[in-house]
Amino acid sequence: MKIYDWPTGPYPARVRIALAEKKIQSRVEFVPVNLWKGEHKKADFLAKNYSGTLPVLEVEDGTFLAECTAITVYLDALEGEPTLTGRTAYEKGVIHMMTKQAEIEMLDAISVYFHHATPGLGPDVELYQNREWGLRQRDKALRGMHYFDSVLRKQNFIAGEAFSMADIAVIGGFIFAAIVELPIPQECEALLAWFARMQERPSVREQLAIVPPIH
Ligand SMILES: N[C@@H](CCC(=O)N[C@@H](CS)C(=O)NCC(=O)O)C(=O)O
């Protein structure tokens, strides 16, 4: 398998953490696509993923899977423990819901802030920016952090009582927050304590070692 990615990107980090959890990194060849040079918007990459985003998984038969959630579901079905996407119908549903909420309420919101209210990937890539929209999304992400804090006051992991793809999605949010220098509010004590626990996992520690420090 090949994974087209940019090693320090917050979304590719989700797939890298999933691979490390499943201990199947050796089955993958990583192919860097330079975001800062806009390589992800060039025709040959768009033929792999219409959305022009990373990561993209190329499976053995040469077909492509985009979207972190879809890629993680695929990898999880291959082999190995732990199970990241749930075993029972209910677990699968909750993990999917919380992963989607992690994207909508935190990770994607920070991404919009980055692309619209900061220099983002630079003028050659950021062809349209709307600062007001970006700032609104930053505030949405801050509200999202409080939401996940309230979730973690009642349970140990984002989707219940076991580590899952949903935890990885919120970790992606922490990584993106560090890149845009958006501090996690100190009053989000349960969220910060959860993140400290997440860093005890080798998969997470390994990924955090290559991204900006998280405060
Ligand atoms: N919904 C996508 C989002 C992926 C995404 O936004 N990836 C970033 C890399 S960290 C990207 O490609 N950004 C480039 C851009 O939006 O121009 C997913 O879950 O895979």
TrEMBL record:
<dbReference type="Pfam" id="PF13409">
    <property type="entry name" value="GST_N_2"/>
</dbReference>
<dbReference type="InterPro" id="IPR004046">
    <property type="entry name" value="GST_C"/>
</dbReference>
<dbReference type="InterPro" id="IPR050983">
    <property type="entry name" value="GST_Omega/HSP26"/>
</dbReference>
<dbReference type="InterPro" id="IPR034346">
    <property type="entry name" value="Gtt2-like_C"/>
</dbReference>
<dbReference type="InterPro" id="IPR036249">
    <property type="entry name" value="Thioredoxin-like_sf"/>
</dbReference>
<dbReference type="InterPro" id="IPR036282">
    <property type="entry name" value="Glutathione-S-Trfase_C_sf"/>
</dbReference>
<feature type="domain" description="GST N-terminal">
    <location>
        <begin position="1"/>
        <end position="83"/>
    </location>
</feature>
<dbReference type="InterPro" id="IPR010987">
    <property type="entry name" value="Glutathione-S-Trfase_C-like"/>
</dbReference>
<dbReference type="GO" id="GO:0016740">
    <property type="term" value="F:transferase activity"/>
</dbReference>
<dbReference type="GO" id="GO:0005737">
    <property type="term" value="C:cytoplasm"/>
</dbReference>
<dbReference type="InterPro" id="IPR034345">
    <property type="entry name" value="Gtt2-like_N"/>
</dbReference>
<dbReference type="InterPro" id="IPR040079">
    <property type="entry name" value="Glutathione_S-Trfase"/>
</dbReference>
<dbReference type="InterPro" id="IPR004045">
    <property type="entry name" value="Glutathione_S-Trfase_N"/>
</dbReference>
<protein>
    <submittedName>
        <fullName>Glutathione S-transferase</fullName>
    </submittedName>
</protein>
<feature type="domain" description="GST C-terminal">
    <location>
        <begin position="88"/>
        <end position="215"/>
    </location>
</feature>
<keyword id="KW-0808">Transferase</keyword>
<dbReference type="Pfam" id="PF00043">
    <property type="entry name" value="GST_C"/>
</dbReference>
